[in-house]
Amino acid sequence: MAGGVEELVASRLLRQSGSIVRVSDVQLTRRLHMLHKASYLKGFHLHATDGEIGHVDDFLVDAGWNIRYVVVDTSNWIGGKSVLIAPVAIEKIDVEKQEIRVKLTRSQIQQSPSVETADIELIETMPSVLIM
After folding, report:
1. Is 100 left (phi over 0), alpha (psi -120 to 50) or beta?
2. Cβ proximity of 60 and 71 under 8 Å
3. 71 and 56 in contact (C-beta within 8 Å)?
4. In sequence order, which residues have a C-beta less than 8 Å from that of residue 86 and are 6 or more positions away?
5. Cα separation, 74 vs 85, whole angstroms
6. Of 12, 45, 81, 108, which one's alpha carbon is 20 to 30 angstroms from that of 24?
7. In terms of Cα–Cα distance, which of 54, 99, 100 is closest to 78?
8. 10-residue block means of pLDDT along the chain (132 residues)?
9. Edge to edge, what strands does the sheet with 90-94 contain?
10. Which helix (H) or strand (E) holds 125?
């Protein structure tokens, strides 16, 4: 939707304050508040403070629909596994580069709890079966 709510609100605020704001400022505001589908973020590369460590494999949500953990696949690293990262560790999501930067080191990520330690419903851990 061209324009969008953010531009409309910014336009009204500008008229009230008499300030001048560049279109790029409005576009930046829209980008900072952009929503992303979880399915789109799957596969994004995860960058620790000291380099790339894996990719986003899944998300775990609680009964209140809050994202509790990002499941990160570190299998490309020696001894890699799927680990759980709390969303508060996310520093930045760069959609154009398809990467997520976190405020953790590679070592901290490698020492994070394994996905096997999460309390996930058994039915959700079973492989999908196609019935014909």
Report:
1. beta
2. yes
3. yes
4. 68, 69, 70
5. 12
6. 45
7. 54
8. 48 46 49 73 94 91 88 81 91 91 93 78 57 59
9. 82-85, 67-73, 51-61, 45-48, 99-102, 90-94
10. helix 122-125
